[in-house]
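name: query_chain
kind: protein
chains: 1
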Amino acid sequence: MESTKLKRPKHKGSPKLFENPMLEKLTHTHISVPLIIFFVTSVALIYYGIFEKGFRTPEILAWFAGGLLFFTLIEYLAHRYLYHIPATTPRRQKISYTMHGVHHDYPKDKSRLAMPPVLSLIVASVLFIIYRAILGDYVFGFLAGFLVGYAGYLAVHYSVHAFKVPNNFLKILWHHHSIHHYREPDRAFGVSSPFWDHIFRTMPRQTPASDRTAVGKSIDDENMGKAHAH
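structure:
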């Protein structure tokens, strides 16, 4: 079982995280599973809010937008302070590696680019209980937006590692995440958007155009020989 970071990322294979075969199997997820779960759940929440709770469409969409924006903040904070928690003890090192370090070591392991469905459903249920206690019935719009935000994050993160840099405005997301993986792991924490990196001043330093992954190239393959030890 691997629990320490590699000196250089591997772009083939998938490390074993748990000795228990059931737990190990649960760490692998096809990207379509959580996307379907969260999009369907979000549609159901909005439908229930409008047709069962009587919310007007503009009202529930406003809460939806609030939940979506709130997710982008949680995404940034979790990536910066939870996923990259300092490994000051063996226990912290193990937790950090299992949650996120394994992804930095095996960035092209497509089966570990999303939270396992079972854990996803548990987290979504807990969030519903918490948000319902705080927001009341507004939870149906807010949580729907939050879950769509998470699904969007998963889609972007998967695309950045699975597909080549596109020749359009979305390429900034590829470049941004590439810098986090291969140049400045203490910056560029936003995945679905660099918005909060601007706000909290963790935007990467200026990168020469010649060092950016070219359109039509994979960020992982292109940077394989230049990866930092992180």
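note: The two ends are 19 Å apart (CA to CA).
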